[in-house]
Design goal:
The protein is of the alpha/beta class and 149 residues long. 39% of the residues lie in helices and 20% in strands. The protein is globular, with a radius of gyration of 15 Å. Bound molecules: iron/sulfur cluster.
Amino acid sequence: MGLIDIARSKSPWILHFDAGACNGCDIELLACLTPVYDVERFGIINIGNPKHADVLLVTGTVNKRSARVLRNLYDQMPEPKAVVAIGACALSGGVFHQCYNILGGVDAVLPVDVYVPGCAPKPEAIIEGVVMALGRMQEREQARKRGAA
Ligand code: SF4
């Protein structure tokens, strides 16, 4: 494992996008940053620039307006990157899935690495989702390097 891989696994930078949530999932996600859970002590930092992000955390349903923004953010993130869908709405459209403007869950637009179910999921589940996403990123990066060797 190279220095950059070690640094990334020890201090992943996350980008949060609300694709159309009721804000319930967003509140639980933000709770991860409060002193109670304090994920920054593990090196997990919430940032606003997709070009610096390792993990994209998406809450809410994907609708016709948010789909293009979501794809745009994802495309700006450098490889390796991972996507975590948080909450029933991000998984499948949830309670909004029959609305006229809903495309579905995040995987209607992007490849999703980890699904965190719940309405809304607890902060512990969200933190576990980020850890699982790091594992997926490492697996993919190692596979890529084996393929290049
Ligand atoms: S999963 Fe529940 S809490 Fe989260 S955005 Fe949907 S309705 Fe709100």
